[in-house]
C-alpha cells in the first residue's frame, strides 16, 4: 500500500498542476497590463502656428509623432509570450485533469485506486466472504479500464500538441511574411518623407501576434521598421523562416531529441538548424514542453502506477480472486537425496488456500509460520494441514502439491507486510524455497 500512496499523491500533483498554471496566468496578465500604461506608446500632436497676411494667426495639427518607450515595449512582447505559453499549458492541463477526474468524483483515478485496495484489505481479512472476490474483480477491471483510457488520452493530447505545433509554425510564417511586407511599406513611406505613425499600430499588431507564438527580441529602425531575432535570426525574406516536419499521430515510444536520435522532429530555422531549445516563450514553446516533457512525465507516472498495481494485485491474486488456480502444482527445483530431512529455515507467514475454480471462493486455508519450519518434511506436513491437500515427490524428485479435486485450485501468498515469506539463510522468496515457481504462483506474478 505504501507504493500506491506515493503514486496516488503523484496523481494529485498532476491535477494540482492546473492551479499552478492558473497562478502563472495571473502573474503574466499583470505584467501584460502594466505594459499597457499610458507611457508605453502614445501619439502626441505636432502643432504649427500659421500667420496670415492680415496679421491673424491660427494653429493646425501637422502630424502626430509616435512616442514609444522601447523598454516597456519589449516587456510587453515578453509578457505576451509568457501569457501565451501559460494559456496553452493551462488548457492542456485542464484536459489532463479531466482525464484523471476530480477528487470528489467516485470515478476519479485516485478514488478508483482507493476502492481497489480497500477491497483487497477486505479479502485479506475475510477470505471466505463470498462477495469479496467478485467485488474486487469488478473494481480492478474498472480501474484497469480507466488506466487504459488515461494512457490513450495522454497520447491523444500529445498528438494534439504535434498538430498544434505544425499549425502554429504555419501561422508564424504567415505573420513573418506580413511583417516583411509591413517593413517594406514603412521604409517606403519614410523614404518619401511622409508620416509613418498612421501605419505603426497595424505594424505592432503583427509583432504582438508573433510574440504569442515564440520569443522575440525587437530592434526598431528610424523608419519604424522592425528587425527581429527569436533569439535566433528570423530571415523575413524567406518563404519559410521556420519549419516543422510533424503533425502525425504519436505513440508512447516516439520522443524528441535535439541530437537527432529521437523519432520526433523539432522546429528548424531557414538554414535547417534545430532551434527548438530556444522556444522558451509563446504557445510554440508551451506546446513543445507539453509534447516532450509534461505529458511524457504524466505517462511515466501512470506507467509506474500500473506497475505498482500489478505487483500489489498479483500478490493478492494468488488467492485465486483474479484467475483460475491449478489443482496440481509441481516445483522446479530438485530436492536433494536427503529428501524430507533437508534443512530449512524461514521467516514470515505463508497462507495456503484451496480455491473453488468456478466461483473463486476460498474453501479451506491455513496460515503457516515459516519460523516453525526446520526441514522440507516440516514444510510438507504444514501443507498437509490444509484439508484435502496432499504432497509427494514426482519421478524427478520435485515436490508436488495436489488438491485431489479438479474443481479446487491451490494458491499461496505471503501475508506479512514487512517480512515476506522467505528462506532465512538465502533470502529467497518462498516461490523458490518451496519449489513452486513453475506453476500456480511465479507464472501468475508475471501476468
From TrEMBL:
It holds the Pfam family FlgK_D1. The keyword Secreted applies. The keyword Secreted applies. It is found in: Bacterial flagellum; Secreted. It comes from the Bacteria. InterPro entries: FlgK, FlgK_helical. Keywords: Bacterial flagellum, Cell projection, Cilium, Flagellum, Secreted. Residues 95-322 form the Flagellar hook-associated protein FlgK helical domain. Belongs to the flagella basal body rod proteins family. This is Flagellar hook-associated protein 1. It comes from Candidatus Bealeia paramacronuclearis.
Amino acid at each position: 500500500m505504501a507504493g500506491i500512496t506515493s503514486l496516488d499523491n503523484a496523481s494529485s500533483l498532476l491535477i494540482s498542476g492546473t492551479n499552478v498554471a492558473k497562478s502563472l496566468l495571473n502573474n503574466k496578465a499583470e505584467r501584460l497590463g502594466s505594459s499597457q500604461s499610458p507611457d508605453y506608446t502614445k501619439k502626441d500632436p505636432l502643432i504649427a502656428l500659421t500667420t496670415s497676411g492680415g496679421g491673424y494667426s491660427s494653429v493646425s495639427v501637422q502630424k502626430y509623432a509616435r512616442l514609444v518607450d522601447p523598454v516597456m515595449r519589449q516587456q510587453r512582447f515578453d509578457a505576451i509570450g509568457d501569457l501565451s505559453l501559460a494559456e496553452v499549458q493551462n488548457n492542456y492541463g485542464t484536459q489532463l485533469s479531466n482525464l484523471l477526474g476530480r477528487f470528489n468524483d467516485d470515478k476519479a483515478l485516485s478514488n478508483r485506486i482507493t476502492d481497489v485496495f480497500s477491497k483487497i484489505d477486505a479479502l485479506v481479512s475475510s477470505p471466505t466472504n463470498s462477495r469479496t472476490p467478485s467485488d474486487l474483480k469488478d473494481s480492478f477491471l474498472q480501474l484497469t479500464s480507466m488506466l487504459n483510457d488515461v494512457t490513450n488520452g495522454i497520447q491523444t493530447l500529445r498528438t494534439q500538441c504535434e498538430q498544434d505545433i505544425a499549425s502554429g509554425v504555419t501561422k508564424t510564417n504567415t505573420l513573418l511574411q506580413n511583417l516583411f511586407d509591413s517593413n517594406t511599406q514603412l521604409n517606403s513611406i519614410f523614404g518619401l518623407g511622409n508620416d509613418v505613425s498612421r501605419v505603426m499600430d497595424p505594424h505592432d499588431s503583427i509583432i504582438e501576434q508573433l510574440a504569442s507564438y515564440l520569443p522575440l527580441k525587437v530592434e526598431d529602425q528610424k523608419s519604424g521598421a522592425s528587425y527581429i531575432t527569436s533569439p535566433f535570426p528570423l530571415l523575413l525574406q524567406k518563404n519559410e523562416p521556420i519549419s516543422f516536419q510533424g503533425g502525425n499521430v504519436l505513440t508512447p515510444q516516439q520522443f524528441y531529441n535535439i541530437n537527432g536520435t529521437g523519432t520526433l522532429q523539432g522546429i528548424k530555422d531557414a538554414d535547417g538548424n534545430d532551434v527548438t531549445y530556444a522556444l522558451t516563450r509563446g504557445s510554440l514553446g508551451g506546446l513543445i514542453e507539453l509534447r516532450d516533457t509534461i505529458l511524457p512525465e504524466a505517462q511515466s507516472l501512470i506507467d509506474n502506477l500500473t506497475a505498482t498495481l500489478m505487483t500489489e494485485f498479483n500478490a493478492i491474486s494468488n488467492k485465486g480472486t483474479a484467475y483460475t488456480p491449478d489443482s496440481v502444482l509441481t516445483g522446479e527445483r530438485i530436492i536433494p537425496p536427503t529428501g524430507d530431512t533437508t534443512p530449512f529455515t524461514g521467516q514470515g507467514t505463508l497462507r495456503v488456500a484451496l480455491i473453488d475454480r468456478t466461483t473463486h471462493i476460498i474453501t479451506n486455508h491455513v496460515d503457516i509460520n515459516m519460523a516453525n519450519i526446520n526441514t522440507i518434511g516440516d514444510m510438507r506436513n504444514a501443507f498437509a494441514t490444509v484439508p484435502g491437500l496432499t504432497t509427494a515427490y514426482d519421478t524427478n524428485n520435485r515436490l508436488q502439491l495436489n488438491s485431489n479435486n479438479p474443481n479446487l485450485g491451490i494458491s499461496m501468498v505471503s501475508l506479512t507486510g514487512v517480512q515476506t515469506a522467505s528462506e532465512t539463510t538465502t533470502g529467497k522468496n518462498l516461490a523458490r524455497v518451496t519449489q513452486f515457481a513453475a506453476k500456480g504462483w511465479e507464472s501468475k506474478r508475471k501476468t
